[in-house]
Design a protein that fits this description.
Elements (H helix, E strand, L loop, with lengths): L7 H12 L1 E3 L5 E3 L9 E2 L10 H10 L5 H5 L5 H7 L3 E7 L6 E8 L10 E8 L5 E6 L9 H16 L60 H6 L1
Antiparallel strand pairs: 1-2, 3-4, 4-5, 5-6, 6-7
Amino acid sequence: MNLEILSQDDDYEFMDTKRRTIQTESGEEVVLDGVTDIVDWYKNLSTLPNIEHYDVLIYLLHYCKWPEQRLKNFKNDNGYRLFLANHIDNVEISSILREEFVYVKATCVPETRQSGTPYSVWILIKHVSGEIASAGCSCVADNGMCKHCVAFLFGLSRCSDRHKDRGVEVGTDVECVWDKPRQQSVPMEIDDIDTRINTSKQQPILPTGTTFQPQIKQLPCTKKHFKRI
């Protein structure tokens, strides 16, 4: 059978172009630059669009095709749990692009390999309305529907809700930046874990083949000793 050979690279290029395509007010379709092509990024999130909770749910329903039951139980989803565990960090926003769109990007610590290289996630948002247009991630899926993108979406919604006055300048205000996540855990070897209550003294050296030298206590050989035996 002579089957057609499908090119995975071409499929990805088509998908990537599609999610960066926006429609102007005149009806013209325009392809925005990719995230890696954007030069100017800002950690000050005062210009972050107002992303409501329902904006996230609408994206999950229409773009990610979540069923109704999964939407109702979104708090049990892996993406939402990643958000609660503060796996999102290094959030930056681009300058406003054509037709009032902006990119927001971040890093997401892997769920099971927290010492590994973080994933790069991004969201394309309409600046005026906060409508979520598309998303992407450096993970294997990279379709805007992975748990890393979902965690980022919920994080942006929470940030938007907590900093509703971020666009109002006040003399005592500090720069509106992403809330600092919890300290990342670093895996340790079992032998390196110190379980002692009092750690002020030096930890005793663990016995090894070179340091462990057991000695047999010599008992006195007397008549009294043999009688006990």
